[in-house]
Design goal:
Number of strands: 0
Helix content: over 70%
Mean pLDDT: 87
Structural class: mainly alpha
Radius of gyration: 21 Å
Distance between the termini: 55 Å
Order of helices and strands: HHHH
Oligomer: single chain
Low-confidence stretches: none
Number of domains: 1
Largest sheet: none
Strand content: under 5%
Number of helices: 4
């Protein structure tokens, strides 16, 4: 993902409107691009700050943004890992079925 695409996706990320692949590309880009990360921080602070001012109370928006980035990326990595396990289980089931079928035939 380049900077132009990343900046275009900032609002969608804040509103949780990006798909998993786009989220991953977005977060990887943010980790590698200080300029885009600064723009994300500004937009997040404005978006969430305005919402929070209406509610009142105190908040740590920078900390919350860091947590949002980290939890979103961790979720992506967990889903990828789970998908790998499901794929491995499917392969094992296919191999077991093939072996079982051969044993029955002979």
């Amino acid at each position: 993902m380049n900077c132009k695409e990343a900046e275009k996706n900032i609002t969608c990320f804040i509103k949780d409107e990006l798909g998993e692949k786009e989220q991953e590309k977005f977060i990887v880009h943010m980790k590698d691009c200080p300029g885009c990360m600064e723009e994300l921080s500004i937009q997040y602070l404005v978006f969430e700050g305005l919402n929070r001012l209406e509610e009142g109370g105190t908040f740590d928006l920078r900390g919350e943004l860091d947590k949002k980035l980290e939890s979103t990326y961790s979720g992506i990595l967990r889903r990828k890992s789970l998908n790998r396990w499901f794929f491995a289980a499917e392969i094992c089931a296919i191999v077991a079925f093939a072996i079982f079928s051969q044993l029955i035939l002979f």
